[in-house]
Amino acid sequence: MAKTKITTFALILNSRPNRFGKYAIYIRIIQDRKVTKVKTPVEVSKKDWNPEGGKNENWVRQSDPDYSNKNDTLKNELAKIKDTYQKLKKDSIATPERIIAAVNAGESSETFLKVEKSKAGITMTGFAAERTQDILDAGGIRNWKKYNGFLNKLADFMAKKMRKKELLFADITPALLTRFDAYLHTLHNARSKKEAGKMLHQNTIVVIFNIFRTLMRKGMKLGFITPDKNPFITFKYSGIKTEKEKLEIAEMEALEALELEEGSLDWHSRNCFLFSFYCAGIRAGDLLQLRWLNVEGGRLNYQMGKNHKTRDLKLVPQAAAILDLYRSENSKPTDYIFPFMDNRKTYASAVSQADRDTLPSDMKQKLFEEVSAKNALINKSLKRLATKAGISKKVSMHISRHSFASIAVQKGLESNKVKSLLAHSRLQTTEGYMGNFSSSENDKALESVFEHPADKKAQLLALIQGMSEEDVASVLATLDK
Predict the structure, then answer these.
(1) pTM of the prediction?
(2) Is the pLDDT at 148 greater than 90, yes or no?
(3) How many domains does the chain have?
(4) Which residues contact 104 (CB under 8 A, 6 or more apart)?
């Protein structure tokens, strides 16, 4: 006889507020210690939430003007979940995922995306829009921008090519994905005026389909589609390999040798670029938010914002020399090292990455926008510096990582060690940064195939002629041994 699964239901408050300072209320389902949460349409202020209200169904306090309607909604939402659970339990399929899918199916929530236009603007609803909003509410600004871009392109495709306002999960087939792919290839890159004449890059299209595929997998997990109906089983797409821009040692030296006015924007920008390079390629977002407390005992220790990995690096003399340019008696441990971010701003109170993770989503967005703006300012300055240094490549903060990887390999460092220094999870990512750095080795190998013995003899004679009598005698003595 199958063991009965213990299932409990409760209403809980989300741990983080949304951009309006309100907290969403979720239904928490616990089955065999596995926790699943279902978002309700009710949002409240933290002071109006009564965690003990389940006894008399008064979860929202009377201090909320709409407390009665909100409590009724919560009561109905909880009842629907419980009723669905009892029905599915008879067939032994009452898993949290199936409960949620059954409830959503009863409300016609099989909508992947619905777009409605009004005088107030465009409103998007449905599964994809809800997941995108969840990302924003959780403070994932970078991911939210990508998902929001995907929604906008899909909405345009629906309006222009499908003449539809609503897209159901059942509508998403390999044929539809093929049409969407063709449509994306007709779009122009609108990121900047300089890129306006170019078409959307193939790798950008790959990012769009990666998001589409992730949403379909999530929908499949929740029961909106069955695995055999997932169109990505047969629909295939791929990107193209691009050459990562990087500077050679001579170009780095030319950049470092530039005479710049101390304290100028160009001076600070070059210092940031070089410090990133000497510290194995710190990402701009992390570098701009470094504090003096991240420096101790000749080491740099910080947590990366992108993947939350901790980096603990020894400060080489070149990096330490750059820090000395900014250190003063008045420097506080919580002060930013580089003078681009404002210590007086509200977001500056979030010193560590853990602090930044718990900021309200609107504050996270402000911090993200500030970092992006300062990064763009530095990149504009680096472009000027590259011209002054006679460098034709497009220099930006991020290629300090590529440059470090390139030069490290040229110096004989193994790929796995470069991977570790860059804090990559996969060697494949590191190899993408490194590019075709073995071309010089290939050149030597090719030359050796066709090299004539006389050439080697001539090289040896030339070498001996350039040596002193003492050096020749020393070499001969070594050979005798």
Answers:
(1) 0.60
(2) yes
(3) 4
(4) 110, 222, 224
